[in-house]
Amino acid sequence: MILKIVTLISLPLPLVLWPIVSILGSFVGGMAFGFFAPLLATFEAVGEDVTDKCYHCIIDGCWPTLQGSCTVVRDFTDFCFHSYFSYMDDLIMEKPADENTVELKLLRLPGCLLISLLGLLVDVPLVTILALWKSPYMLFTGWKRLLEDFLGREGPFLETVCVPFGGLAIILWPLAVVASVLAAFLSSFFLGLYAGVIVHQEKSLTMGLAYVVAAVSLFDEYANDLLYLEPGSRLPRPKYRKNVDSTSQSIQKKTSYDGRDDVEKDGKEGPSDTKLTSQRSRTLKAAIQHYKPIKVLDWLFKSCEVNGRKLLHDGVINMKDIEECVVKGNCKKLGTALPTWCIMKCLLASAKSDSPVLVVSDEVDLTITSWPREKMFQWFIEPLLVMKEQIRKLNLDETEEACLKIAIMQSKNERPDQWDDIGFPSKDNIKRAQLQSVIRRLQGIVGSMTRMPTFRRRFQNLVKVLYTEAGMTGALVNYIVESSTKRDNFEGEKKDETSKENKHVKSMSGVENIV
User: Fold this and answer.
1) At what angle do helices 293-314 and 332-352 cross, to 10 degrees?
2) Can you give the pLDDT at residue 57?
3) pLDDT band at 249; cut points 50, 70, 90
């Protein structure tokens, strides 16, 4: 209750700042996108396989940039009106049994606010001064590194098409330095405000004051690591946590100060400039071999289209769900069930293979070395590997696999006895419960994916394709005929009931007149 009251009191400030920030962000983002998108198209237009390069240098990038701008607006709208409310639905759900609520103590709030204000007064100017102090070194070190890459054809100058962008990076590097200083200035506010959280967690004003001092040292150490300066920081860093293992602190300190010496002994890295050229180039070459998340999404939507057509022809997909998605924009049911079945097919194919990979298609396998390195994508991919091993141990036959698509598309999968209606061949309730738990986890993963702005737009386009397919196969006509028949029958029954009521009223009025 105290947290809700504090939130309501502090809510007007972000509500007032939000339109201002969104307008400025839209303006800056629009300027950057409107400049760099045609610029990239111009460099692509002068490729080796392009004819009439002068024409393409002027035309390419104009109309696609306008289309991309409309796409960004559409995705942002989906996030505001779909993803946001999906997150809110999770927040207002009943609290899980394994989670404990954190209650704010009213007596600690004055101390938290006082230390947060003190943290702003101390950390904001000191962090800004440190950023300004290190900015000249960042400027000249960055120029030195870019020139070395330019002369040695490393880093951004590795490919010929990237050479103009590398030259542009050399020219615009001062803007990157200014942006980093501004980012440090903005982050200092959060560092200072976090002191109030430390006070509440540690139940001590002293620990909050210690964090105010230690935050500057932490920022200095991270800046030194980023700029390849001397590891650690010479600024004081008092202990601001009571329950911190001293062994882990000593290990972290030893790693922080002695890590460079150990690396120098191995001969792999060090303070020399060779690390900046060779190591980063190897990292760039290795990163090229990784698949991008957008590529994985392309595979998923391609699978949804292929399997959606099959399920539509088999009568598994309900035309009512397609109509609700196309007409009303309500794709919650179909938008979860269809991708879940596609991922389940991927898991079934992967479980049959002997290799520890995910078989995405006949030509593509997702391995540990090829899947995207984004942390958010790994949150999706790692549970899938676990579920693949669970499915492999269940030893499903072809009949059971065929029933899974009906179970995913039409059943709620809450109890094992719900599968009696779909004709699931196995009577083992334990096996059914394990499969239902896997399906529910898949539905949870897909539910998280639907919050991505791109997902909703692309899935609605996919459903429009299925709607057109239904019109070509005659399923749409049959659905319209059935709907009109049901509506006529309902209206006829309603008229009969109305006429009966009118007759009853007339008879009663006649009796009253006789009386």
Assistant:
1) 100
2) 77
3) very low
pLDDT tens-digit readout, 368-402: 555 666 666 667 777 888 888 888 888 888 888 88
Kind and range of the H or E element at 160?
Answer: none
Task: Write down the pTM of the prediction.
Answer: 0.62
The verdict on 143 and 192 lying in the same domain is yes
Question: Are both 297 and 445 inside the same structural domain?
Answer: yes
Q: What is the pLDDT of residues 169-180, one digit of tens each?
A: 888 889 999 999
The answer to whether 269 and 429 are in contact (CB under 8 A) is no
Residue 281 lies in a domain: yes
* Region of residue 155 (phi > 0: left; psi between -120 and 50: alpha; otherwise: beta): left
In the DSSP assignment, the letter for residue 75 is H
Burial (0-12, 13-18, 19+ Cβ within 10 Å), 79: middle
pLDDT at res. 70: 92
φ/ψ of residue 431, rounded to 5:
-65, -40
Instruction: Assign residue 440 the CATH number of its domain.
Output: 1.10.565
Cβ neighbourhood burial of 395 (10 Å; 0-12, 13-18, 19+): exposed
| Number of domains present in the structure of the chain | 3
Same domain, 276 and 314: no
- pLDDT at 117 exceeding the cut of 90: yes
Block residue for tokens 């999770």: 90
Spatial contact of 224 and 233, defined as CB atoms under 8 Å apart = yes
pLDDT at 136: 92
Q: Which pLDDT value is given to residue 186?
A: 92
Rounded to whole angstroms, the Cα distance separating 513 from 286 reads 97
- The answer on 169 and 242 residing in a single domain is yes
- What residues have CB less than 8 Å from 467, skipping those under 6 apart? 322, 323, 326, 476
Q: Cβ(227)–Cβ(135) under 8 Å?
A: no
**What are 168's two structure tokens?**
């542009």
What's 360's DSSP letter?
-
The CA-CA-CA angle for residues 498, 501, 502, to 5°, reads 85
Cα–Cα–Cα angle for 443, 318, 451, nearest 5°?
Answer: 35
Q: What DSSP string describes 321-343?
A: HHHIIIII---HHHHHHHHHHHH
Output DSSP code: residue 419.
Answer: G
Would you give the end-to-end CA distance of the chain in angstroms? 66
DSSP string covering 254-266: HHHHHHHHHHHHH
**CA 288 vs CA 250, 282, 292, 295, 373: distances in Å:** 38, 10, 9, 13, 11
Identify the domain containing residue 244 by its residue range: 104-288
pLDDT bracket for residue 162 (50, 70, 90):
low
Distances in Å between the Cα of 330 and the Cα atoms of 77, 320, 341, 413 are 15, 11, 19, 21
